[in-house]
Every structure is written in C-alpha cells, then in structure tokens.
Amino acid sequence: MSAPSSTTTGITAPQSDIDLFSDEVLSVNDDAVFAQLRELGPVVYLPANDAYAITHYGEVRAALSDPVTFSSKAVAFNPQMNEILSGTSLAADPPEHGKLRAILTDNLSPRAMRGMKDDINASARQLVSELIQQDSFDGMADMAVAFPVSVVLDLIGVQGDLRERILPWGEAAFNLLGPLNERAQASFPVAGELFKWTHEEMQGADLAEGSIGRAIFEASERGDISPESFGYIVHQILAAGMDTTITTIGNALVLLGQHPEQFQKLREDVSLVPSALAEVLRLRTPAPVFGRRATTDVVVGGTLIPAGSQVAMCYGAANMDPQKFENPDVFDITRNAVDHIGFGYGIHSCAGQGLAKLEINGLLTAWAQQVEDYRIGAVVPRLNNFTRPYESIEITDIRRA
Ligand code: HEM
C-alpha cells in the first residue's frame, strides 16, 4: 500500500518510522515507544509495518467493539500465519467466530475451571515453599515457566513429558504473529511441529481421563465438533496459554520486587491479589499489539483508515493512556484497573483468562503469604515479536515469612 494521502472523508494519519517488531523496539520498555505514538494521535501510520496503529484507549475499545469493520482475519502481521490460523476463533469473524468460541468457552469458563482451583492453589503453595528454601532462584525458569507448563499439561491431559517441546512451540507461535522478520522465519519449523502434533500425532484416547483435553476429544467422537476442531482447540490452548501467562508471572515478580512498598501492601491484604494482577497486566501488557484488517474505509479519531489496511491495535499504548488512567506510569496495586485491555476486549477478549487468573492469583497469593521480602538481581529480556518475556530474573535476598 502506498503512503496515505488526504481524502475528503478523513484526515491523513500522522506517520512514525517506528517498527513495532524491530529488535530496538522489542528490547526497550514499550512505554516510551507507545508514548511517542500516542502523542502523535489516536491513529498513526507506520510505513515500516504498513499498518495503522490505534493508540488511544477510547479508540482501541471502540474498534474492538466493531469486529465487522475490524476483521480478525489479519490478527497476525503476515498472510501465511493468518492462513494457518483460519479455523481458530482468534482469526475468525462473526458468525463463524461465535461457534468456534463456544467450544472453547464451554471448556474454559469460570464454571469449568472452578473444580481446578483447589489443586492449582495447592500446587502454587508447594512450588513457592520449595523455591524459597534456596537463597536465590531464577524467577523465569523455576517459577514463571515451570508453573503454567505443569498446569496446562494437566489441563490438556498430556501424560508423557512434553515439557521441553511445548515451550519452544508456544514461543514460536507468538513470533509468527509478527511480520516475516528473521524471528518469524526461524519459527515456522518449530511452530510446524506443534501443528503436526495437535493435528496429526496427538491421540485423543491417550489424554488423561477427566482432563479437559479428553472431554474435547470425546465431544469430537460424539460428532459435537469436527475432528479438526479438536486439534485447533488443543493447539490454541497450548499456544495462546503459555507465553502470555509466563510473561505475566515474570512481570509480577519484577514489579513487586522493584516496589517493596506495594509488595508489603499485598502481604498485609492478600485480597488485593486480583487488583495487583490487573495492574501488572495494565502496566506491562504482555502481548501489547494484535492485528486487524479494516474491511471498509473507516474514520477513527478523525483519521481515515482506508479499506483493506492492516491495523495494529496497541493494547499496551491504550493501557498507558493518561486520558484513561491517572498517573499511568505509577505501579499501584490498589488501582483496581479492571478495565485494562491486557486480555483484549469484545468478542475476542481472552477465552483463557479464567485459567490465567487462577494460575497467577494462586501463585501471587502463595508468594505474598510465604515471603516477607525479596530483591530482584539481574534481569535479562528475551525478544519475541508478540510477547515481552524475560529470559531470566534473578530472585535474591529471600526472607521467608
Ligand atoms: C495472562 C495471560 C494471558 C493474556 C495476557 C492473554 C491475552 C489475550 C489477548 C489480548 C487476547 C485477544 C486477542 C485479540 O484481540 O485478537 C486473547 C485471546 C485469546 N486467549 Fe488469551 N491471554 C492469556 C492467557 C490465555 C490462556 C491461559 C489461554 C488458554 C488456556 C488463552 C487462550 C486465548 C484464546 C483461545 C484467545 C482467542 C479468543 C477469541 O478469539 O475468541 N489465553 N488472549
């Protein structure tokens, strides 16, 4: 697409040379990048990504409320991945979306999750009590990664040890949502293994009795859903549920460690855990950009987005919008930022958020109850096109409660 020009139906978008998927942008704190874009306007054209970025909270929410104008068939920033994703609710539009989503939410609803709560909380307490016996540990490998991997494998009912394969698969799936840069190119073969496993190799009957994976398999055997849907659902849970949760746990550990006064507030009142999680998701949005395609000419915030354009919904920028959140760069666990967009908004809002909240709330509660104080040592970021994880987080000076 050529650079935008003035039209009679709207105002030309301001432009920025920021590439949302460059090493430079992915390795700095998003706040600075998003602040620059927000200041340029609610819609900014990015030639490097050939995309219109929507950056203000009000405009992002309004666009997410209109999935017909903003199609998810371009949720990824490259056509190959959008093609691969067709058949998932993430990349579907109404009315197809509703059918695909219903199968997922049946199995991931708060009601379906309720039975898992006690087990997840007990596992969280056990993991924290083991980790804090040491003087220091790696907050990523030992906690942020270890916990969701074991919870999600149990959920799907995977009985062998797939731990080492699942992590690179999830990471590759998120890299592939970006444009076809080197990170995405290198991820095709790895993500292909996940697809092959979920669509060809995985045997439903091998999944543990009573697991959600087994229930979805049985639904496909009864003919309630197609056999392909079974593969897609497992694929989506494994791919979508890992890196996002892992990133968020790492972010919570770092933010609470860097703000000891907030950690003490949490220790004094663990009922603040859900509010603390919302604040972590707002301030460090783990998947800060998702794609859409404008299906028609549309004016957003006074700016024209031409039909057919790739759109970048900047959830991370919206979550730091000072017009919505007072002092947005302040980490305040009492803010109760329930209307953050870290889980998206509208028909595509995260279908797994019930599970994510169970996992992270369980872990943060156990952490606040068992740890009096701790420090953050060296923190190493890990570049991914779509998520913002750390490679490692050194947790030191742990004082047990
Ligand atoms: C803290 C953890 C998580 C975060 C921050 C997160 C974030 C998101 C976001 C922002 C979206 C919306 C995408 C869009 O607008 O196009 C989304 C959708 C989705 N998420 Fe999550 N997610 C998390 C955990 C999970 C988990 C644990 C699962 C599965 C078990 C999951 C499954 C899904 C699915 C299936 C969708 C697509 C829903 C649809 O299109 O209808 N997510 N997630």
TrEMBL record:
Keyword Iron found: yes
Signal peptide segment: none
Coiled coil regions in record: none
Needed cofactors: heme
Positions that bind heme: C350
Superkingdom, natural source: Bacteria
Keywords for this protein: Heme, Iron, Metal-binding, Monooxygenase, Oxidoreductase
Molecular functions per Gene Ontology: heme binding; iron ion binding; monooxygenase activity; oxidoreductase activity, acting on paired donors, with incorporation or reduction of molecular oxygen
Family: Belongs to the cytochrome P450 family.
Protein name: Cytochrome P450
Organism listed in the record: Corynebacterium hylobatis
Lineage: Bacteria, Bacillati, Actinomycetota, Actinomycetes, Mycobacteriales
